[in-house]
Design brief:
Blueprint (H helix, E strand, L loop, with lengths): L3 H19 L2 H25 L2 E13 L6 E4 L4 E9 H9 L6 E4 L9 E5 H9 L7 E6 L2 E7 L3 E7 L2 E5 L3 E3 L3 E3 L2 E5 L2 H4 L5 E2 L3 E6 L3 E6 L7 E3 L2 E6 L1 E16 L5 E6 L2 E9 L13 E4 H5 L5 E3 L9 E7 L2 E8 L7
Parallel strand pairs: 1-4, 8-13, 9-14, 18-21
Antiparallel strand pairs: 1-3, 2-7, 3-6, 5-7, 8-12, 10-18, 11-17, 12-16, 15-17, 18-20, 19-24, 20-23, 22-24
Length: 338
Amino acid sequence: MLDRRNIKRIYFKLYRQMKDFLLSEKSREFFIFLFFFFIASGFWLLQTLNNDYETEFSIPVKLKNVPNNVVITSEPASELHIKVKDKGTVLLNYMLGKSFYPITLDFNDYKGTNNHVSVYAPQFEKKILSQLNASTRLLLMKPDTLEYYYSTGESKLVPVRLQGTVSAGREYYLSDTIFTPDSVLVYASEKALDTITVAYTQKLKIEDISDTLKRQVSLASRKGVKFVPASVEMMLPVDIYTEKTVEVPLRGVNFPADKVLRAFPSKVQVTFQVGLSRFRQVSADDFHIYVSYEELLHVGSDKYTVKLKNIPKGVSHVRFNPEQVDFLIEQVSPNYGN
C-alpha cells in the first residue's frame, strides 16, 4: 500500500515533470500553435455566423379567462412552431439568450359558432413579430389556425365500452370485462351529445392472457368532446376451463290438452366447458330443452335433434349425448294428469 512518503514522492515527481514541460521549447511552440488556432477558429465562426440560416422555434400557447360554467372540451395546440430566417448571430442569440413569451388567447376576445372558436394567423401574428428582431423574417407558422371547442355545462353519463380485441391463452377464457368507473361524464355541445351513447377505449389488442390483467386505459378522444375522467381502470378476469356434465330433461311445450310428448331417452346428457370459479354454480336447472308441438309436426321423422333454448353465461363448447332422441306424440284422455 502507498504510505504518506510514497504519495509525497510521486507528487513532487509529477510536479517536476510538468514544470520541465512548461519551460521547454516544445511547450512554447505548442501554446503558440494553440493561440493561433483559437484566433483562426474565432474568425471562422464569425464569418460563418454572418451567413443567413433558417431554423425553427416553439412558442407556448395559453388560454385564459375561461368562465367557471365553461368546459374546454378540445384544447388549442399547446405549442406554435415557427420557422424563421436571419443571420447566424441573431439566431444564436434566440437559442442561447432569448425566451419567447406565450401566445395568450383570452376567451372573452373570441366568439365562435356552435361552441367552436377558430383564431387565424393574422390575429396572433403580431404577437410573434413583436418578439423577433426587425431583421428576422417569419417564414412559416404551424398550425396556422388555433382552434378549441367548449361546452357551457351540457353533459351526460355514458357507459364505457372496450374497443379492440382481447383473447385468453389456450385452456383459459375471459370471464368478464370490468371498467372502474363503468360510466363517465361526457361534455360536448348539445348537438354532439345527442350522438354520443358510449365512451370507447383507445383501440386495444391483447392476446394470450393467462392471468387476471389490470391496466389503466385512455378513452378514445373525439374532436369537441371531453370525457371526465379521461382514462379508466380495466380489469380482465381470467379463468381456467374445466368440463362438466349434467342431465337435462326434455319438456314439451304448446301441446294440446289431449296430447303428450314421449321422448326416448327422456333426459339428455349435456357436457360443456365452464370456468373453474363457476363450476359449482352451473347446474342442470340452468339448461332448458323445450320441444314445441308445432316444431315436431314439421320434423318429418320420429327423431328430434336436440337444441338448447338458452346457454348460461360463461358456458361454452356444449355437446349432447345423444344428439338425437326418438319421440312419440301420444294421444291421451283430456283429463290426463288430473
